[in-house]
Amino acid sequence: MHDPRRPPDEGRAALLEDGRRAVAAAEHAFGRARREGQDLTGTVHAGVSPAIRPLEREESVRVLREGAPALSVSLIEVRSRDVARLLQTRELDLALVRSVVALTPGSRAPP
After folding, report:
1. Less packed terminus of the chain by CB within 10 Å, N or C?
2. For residue 43, what pLDDT is reported?
3. Which of 11-25, 81-95, 97-111 has the highest mean pLDDT?
4. pTM tops 0.70
5. What are the residue ranges of helices labelled H in 1-111?
6. Residue 5: its pLDDT value, please?
7. CA–CA distance from 51 to each of 79, 90, 95 (Å)?
8. In angstroms, rounded to a whole number, what is the distance separating the alpha carbons of residues 105 and 17?
9. Cβ-count burial of 64 within 10 angstroms (0-12 exposed, 13-18 middle, 19+ buried)?
């Protein structure tokens, strides 16, 4: 019997595939920031959704400051619905959020 809390096999496969791409993109972004920010000073204002666990927050700060020890990272808890506005008004420099893509049977997540 199918557990309704668990997506069908196709959905799990798509979720894993998209998750791998998301992690690779994040690693690339952090690596680029590290390379280009060798002499960075000042404060980066990072919005974090409540879904981002404390250990993930700590790891994100560590990665951002790696190679830029004079950089200060300010974590600000934000709701997902406010992220776009806060980025557009430059109140945030970046945001760490989780999102879920709901797939209908037989569909695939966008690339």
Report:
1. N
2. 92
3. 81-95
4. no
5. 9-36, 54-65, 80-88
6. 64
7. 9, 22, 12
8. 16
9. buried
